[in-house]
Amino acid sequence: TAVRELVDWAAGCELGFLQLLPINETGLDHSPYNAISSVALEPSLLDLGLVPQLTEDDISRARQKLAPDVFTNDLVDYASVKKLKRALLKVAFARFWAQDRKTEGGLAFARFCEEEEEWLDPYCKFRWLMTLEGDCETWDLWSMNYNTAEKAEAWIAKKRAGQRKELEKCLAFPAWIQWIAFTQWRELRAHADSMDVKLMGDVPIGISFSSADVFFERKWFDLKWSGGAPPETVFKDDPFAVRWGQNWGIPNYRWDVLREHGFSWWRRRIEKMTDVFQIFRIDHILGFYRIFSFPWRPGRNAEFLTLDPKEAKARTGGRLPCFLPNDDDTPENCAANLAAGEEYLQMVLEAAGESEVVGEDLGVVPDYVRPHLSEIGIGGYKICHWEVTADKKGLEHPIAGADYEECSFATYATHDHAPMAAMWENFRAGMDAGDEDVREGARWNLRVLSEFAGIPLAKDAESFPPYVEEVQWQLLKALFETNSRYAAFMITDLFGMTERFNVPATVGGVNWAVRMHFTVEEMGRRDDLKGESTKLRILICNTSR
Fold it and tell me: What is the pLDDT of residue 485?
């Protein structure tokens, strides 16, 4: 209901699309980029009020068992919410199984199971095995009875021989949840279409090591390598990221095997995205060309933190973190990586059909990537204050938004960055830092942002105004006036919030758990929030965005 209300709000503001984080199901790790399935949808996002087998009393009684602040805290209590919704879904499924299997709804469920069998059957087995392990998805720590796909299939077959009806019901439960989830999201997609608002999804480059895909379809994955990102000094608070890079723990792909099977796994993944989304972005699209890879899992990061390359090689059999399949250190390697990206992304575009594709191309970007994305019609990112050019004296200035190529996606920040208000004030605070590099970086960013948005500087060109309303709307105006096909801002930016959704190279804490201070309903009722929405609509109309 909340997303449906957000679609209606977006239509009223003349917004063309709503971008969401990945909506695939997660396990005990609540990061949306660490899903347990490349297709299955997250049950905690379901609107239980739309599940026919549940009553308002069912939901009300369940809510009363939880502390009131579970629904009002600044952070989402995933554990409590998931427990609550799963318990209610069990109640609903029991009623469905007992009463509705031969109704029209039951026949629709059967059709869904038949149509989605390729991914749904192994997912349901994996999800049921998770329940036997306290909902833990870490299959390499499961019971020895079923901690490999081969042993799991044999163990399930043995159970089926002795407890067929009970097992059938257990495996049907996660399938039924997915039927409800796909039904709700498809209906939401239809509503968004009717309101002329596009839903934009997100496809991470990788899939979690602890996923149904890796467990039951291991032939697609190279478990000897973990994908990630190369070292970057920007992560000053994370010595491992500075020294070695970010080890995301996602298995690398066996592209040769995928090719032999017509990239069926990737095609299925993309095609199911288009059930819900008219636009989707590929997170870390650079991974289609080459990906920085670690010869160890993230759990061993601390072991390697202080080692030199020779010492690290001694523990990995001679391997070190590197780009695979090729580094970009020779023209021949660059050509090979470009050819790989061309093949894989053409496959993605073919699978996407009429859906639009955006590529998150941030990080260490080879020179060949952005021209190639533009050539094949995938909009790459333009972080406005990172798009600069130098004058004759070597001083860097922002590229005018009017000069951005049309096939691009303009924004000031992603979910991995601070919102505009926090970013601006952090830079202002940085100008007084004890570290000269921090001071220079803060001054440079404020100057470039001010030039880009036409924000006047003080006479000494060193004083920058606080993040007041005029600064906020001047920045948004400059963003909307870019020539980019897409211009996006985080919802926190509209209301001047400073909370950030994720801090890269960190896990847990507040990451992915920030809750908005108000509901969508309040956005349409409260005068202060309505005022911001009205200004947004006027700005969109005035800039012809």
Answer: 97
